[in-house]
Amino acid sequence: MVQVRKPLDGAYAPSAAPLAEGLAAGGNNMREKSLDGSVNYMLDKTVQKGIETVWDRSEQHKRRCGFGEAGICCRHCYMGPCRISPSGKGPQRGVCGATAEVIVARNFGRMIAAGAAAHSDHGRDVASALLLAAQHPESGYSIKDVFKLKKVAQVLGVPIDDRSKEEIALDVAKKALESFGRQEGEVPFISLAPETRQGIWRQLGIAPRGIDREIVEMMHRTTMGVDQDHRNIILHGARTALADGWGGSMIATELQDILFGTPSPLRGQVNLGVLSETDVNIVVHGHEPVLSEMLVVASNDKELLELAKSKGAAGINLAGICCTANEILLRHGLPIAGNILQQELAVNTGAVESMVVDVQCIMPSLPEICKCHHTHLVTTSPKGRIPGAEHFAFSEETALQTAKDIIKDAIMNFPNREKVDIPREKMDLIAGFSHEAIVYMLGGRFRGSYVPLNDNIINGRIKGVAGVVGCGNPKVTHDQSHVNLVEELIANDILVVQTGCSAIACAKAGFLIPEAAEKYAGKGLAEVCRTVGIPPVLHSGSCVDNSRILIALSEMVKIGGLGKDISELPVAGAAPEWMSEKAIAIGHYFVASGVFTVFGVGLPVHGSEVFCNYIFNELESVLGGMWAVEPDPGKMAAMIIDHINNKRKKLGIEKAKERILYDMEMRRELEV
Ligand code: SF4
Ligand code: MSK
Q1: Angle 146-156/249-260 helices, nearest 10 degrees?
Q2: Which atom of ligand 2 approaches the CA of 499 most closely?
């Protein structure tokens, strides 16, 4: 049985004198809203000022629609909307005759399609930027990682020979773009999966053909009166999700690495305390690094730095929120101001001259919050306009000039600052653990491989690997499930790989520094971390970078010793505070790749027992992976640890094998 320990304490010291003031001013007890002292501090301040945040609105919605939460309402046609009575006393079918399991499956399928569309449209934009870099190297975009370019070219079947990097990149970009509209065949990156896994997909007929095709087909199948078998819908859900994980998201990650550099470990800082009292603060927020990379370049422009000084600022401080933050952290070590639920609070510090947003996870409340301060809200994508924001139309062709214009606008806004109140909390971190960086850390430049990881899993120092990812959700205490779950896993010798807002939560808790191994990890994991020089929690990037985890799992299988398929590995996935449709797409491509995947908060599926039984039980015999849901992080940790122990048992490695130090005599015997 697993020993579940008490929740982490002491990771966050509340800011000086914040809470008492807020409570005295009539604020409710905000401390429980977040595990993070800086969040509680800012929430108290916002209550005093009467500014509404996501937590207030969540409270207003606390009597949520039970049909929606259980996934049993349908408005796919106007004979409805229909809802199934969970008590059995009301209607058990929609007007068209749809059962609860069909309604739940269709809703779940559409969430997968929406999430896959978001990641994949991101990938499409990156492919367009690579095309531009290949055709117009003077555009400001260039090819930074030629090694990776050649590696990706091989996967896509693009000849390398003695061609220039631009010629290769042109074909790589075209091939990547073809993957979206492809009608037949297979998305090329699935060839990176273990052969056994590819075989399972082909046998089930779910190897994704084209990214757009699978998403469109999911929308078609789930419209009124088409696919009426929940199993069949979820199998196509697997095909759609795989088109995301092994398609759109992988294109985004791999091509971003080519354009902007493959991440390697670097230092950074995280939390609201990274905002500067003396610099012009520009916060980038959203998901696509295509613009933020140009903002990084422009923020070092001498003329703009001079302009900032002429306006009374010490310099320009570029920081991030959410996944754009993860992108610029991983490649430039730029600071992260917080995860999704901190976006409004960053503005509420009064220290942000400009919040520059692109796409995804941007709260529509931002214009109202910005109006309470001097902050300019800047939209940049034609896909994401917000009334009340200034729009700086971004295109790949004029990216650098647009970036300069945005920074100039922020600088000119600096003298309009009034009262500034920045919480002091910030934490050091190490990030940048791309698949390539992990290989290098484990074995060096010439002997790099996953062999040492597999060896340490086999000898039991590391029990297994867990990917802990995903969002924040005001329905649960901010950051708590991420932090408690990860704390428990590393204490039980499970190496944790992270992306997205979950990585930011654990970075704030101090898990992403090598010293965390001694403080929080089990003996075996700590020993490996000490030897290799890594933290027990590896930050691998943004949401699309979950594709890095897929590649890492495939490499573990290919190295050998841990079975022939991802489903045999002692690994698991988790999204403890998820909220986005994108998380459902990620969860399902992990499941479809053979990974046991647990979500916190809840899942909109409980209105159908038949459906629950399918995804929580039966699916494992079909795909090798399955879903689970558990809101309690301690119990979630116990489920993951039990699952990993079971996999170890099946592999025959349940008992830790002690390291043998060979003497000369033993070596000679080995050589005979
Ligand atoms: Fe109701 Fe069926 Fe129409 Fe859905 S598709 S709204 S269940 S009639
Ligand atoms: S940003 S998708 S809240 S992880 Fe990728 Fe965070 Fe979830 Fe958005």
Answers
A1: 150
A2: 4
Instruction: State phi, psi for 387 to the nearest 5 degrees.
Output: -55, 135
Tally of helices (H runs) and strands (E runs) in the chain? 29, 16
What are the Cα distances from residue 484, in Å, to 345, 467, 509, 639, 670?
23, 14, 10, 14, 45
Helix (H) or strand (E) holding 454: helix 451-458
At residue 658, the pLDDT reads 54
Choice from 67, 72, 73, 75 to test ligand 1 binding pocket (greatest atom count within 8 A of CB): 75
Q: Does domain 272-416 have CATH number 3.40.50.2030?
A: yes
* Continuous H helices in 560-602: 581-592
**pLDDT the model gives residue 17:** 31
Mutate to test the pocket of ligand 1, among 73, 76, 102 (most ligand atoms within 8 A of CB): 76
Which tens digits make up the pLDDT trace of 368-402? 999 999 999 999 999 999 999 999 998 888 889 99
Q: How far is the CA of 544 from the centre of ligand 2 (A)?
A: 10
- 74 Cβ inside 6 Å of ligand 1: yes
Architecture of domain 427-651: 3-Layer(aba) Sandwich (3.40)
Q: Report the C-alpha gap between 587 and 149 in whole angstroms.
A: 28
Distance CA 282, CA 308 (A): 12
* pLDDT, tens digit (0-9, with 9 covering 90-100), for 213-259: 999 999 999 999 999 999 999 999 999 999 999 999 999 999 999 99
Question: Does the CB atom of residue 134 touch ligand 2 within 6 A?
Answer: no
- Find out whether 585 and 111 touch, Cβ atoms under 8 Å: yes
Digit-coded pLDDT (tens) for 556-578: 999 999 999 999 999 999 999 99
Tell me the ligand closest to 338's alpha carbon: 2
Cβ within 8 Å of residue 328, ≥6 positions away:
284, 289, 292, 293, 296, 318, 320, 334
pTM comes to 0.93
What's the 95 CA to ligand 1 centre distance in angstroms?
6
Q: How remote is the CA of residue 579 from the centroid of ligand 2, in Å?
A: 8
Q: Is the CB of 362 under 6 A from ligand 2?
A: no
Q: How far is the CA of 126 from the centre of ligand 2 (A)?
A: 18
Whether 597 lines ligand 2, by a CB cut-off of 6 Å, is no
Q: Are 245 and 550 in contact (CB under 8 A)?
A: yes
- Alpha carbons 502 and 468: distance in angstroms, whole number: 7
Handedness of CA 399, 404, 407, 408 (dihedral sign): negative
Dihedral of CA atoms 419, 369, 324, 58 in degrees, nearest 10, equals 130
Mean pLDDT of the chain: 92
Domain 272-416 and domain 427-651, same fold? Reply is yes
In short, whether 110's Cβ falls inside 6 Å of ligand 2 is no
Alpha-carbon gap, residue 425 to 14, rounded angstroms: 8
- Our answer on whether the CB atom of 93 is closer than 6 Å to any ligand 1 atom is no
SS in 3 state form for 515-564?
HHHHHHCCHHHHHHHHHHCCCCEEECCCHHHHHHHHHHHHHHHHHCCCCC
Residue ranges per domain, the chain?
Answer: 272-416, 427-651
